[in-house]
C-alpha cells in the first residue's frame, strides 16, 4: 500500500519553512478484535528551519500564516546540509497514526463456543443410566 509524501520549501517573514504532506493508507491492528484495519492518512505539518548553532524557539510557537489567513502551528528543527528527509517523514507518520485503531464494526465470528462440547455432567448422567 503506497504512502505518499511531499516536501515543499517556503520563505515566510524572512524565515525558511518546510511543509510536509503525507497521504496514503496504512494497515494497523484493531484494538478490539486484533484484526487488520486500514487507516487513511492525510496530514500536513510545517517545520521551521533554524540555522545550526542557533537555539530552537519554544515548541508552542505560532505564526500568522498569510496564505491560510490563520495562526498555524509549526515545529522548529535545526537545518543542516544532510537533512534526513525519511526521518522527518517517519516522525510525521508516527504523529499522525491513530493511537487506538479500531474497525467501525468488527467482523469477528463470535458465538461458536456457545455450542461447544456438552458439559461433563451430561456424560456423568449417561454413566449412571448404564
Ligand atoms: Zn476489529
Automatic annotation (TrEMBL):
InterPro entries on file: YceD (IPR003772), YceD_bac (IPR039255)
UniProt-recorded name of the protein: Large ribosomal RNA subunit accumulation protein YceD
Keywords per UniProt: Ribosome biogenesis
Family according to the record: Belongs to the DUF177 domain family.
Pfam families for the chain: YceD
Biological role: Plays a role in synthesis, processing and/or stability of 23S rRNA.
